[in-house]
Predict the structure.
Amino acid sequence: MTNLMMRSLVVLLFAAGSAMAEENVLARAVARCADDIDAYCPHVKPGNGRLMGCLYSNETKISSECGLALNALSLEYESVIAKGADIIDACETEREAFCPTAEWGQGGVVKCLALQSHTVESVSASCRLTLEKHGLI
C-alpha cells in the first residue's frame, strides 16, 4: 500500500466520524479534481468520503493537479487528527471529571472543557495550555 493510500485510509476514517476542519481544503480538492471525478467516478454518489475514496482508488490515473490537492487534503486531516490526539491526551481526565456525558469528535468535549477551564481551578494546567495552544480557548 502506497503512502498516499495509507493517508487516504486515515482521511476516510476520520471523515466518517468528524467534521471538516478546513472546508476550503476540501472544496479546493473537489474543484481541482472535477475532471478526474467526471472521468473515473461518475457513478459515485457524493458524501461520506465516497468521492475521495474513488479518487484514491484511481490514484495512478488521476491528474497531478488532483493528486496534489488530495495530498493537501490528507495533510490537513492528519494535522486535525494530531491536534485531536494531543487534546485527548492532555484532557481526558478532565473530560471524565467535568464532562462525563460528552463524547470526543463532535466538539462538545472541547466546548465543555473550554467553559470549565475559565471557571474551575481543578482543570489541569496541561489541559488548559493544550486547549490554548490549539486556539480553542
In short: The two ends are 39 Å apart (CA to CA). Helices lie at 3-17, 23-32, 34-40, 50-57, 64-98, 108-119, 125-133.
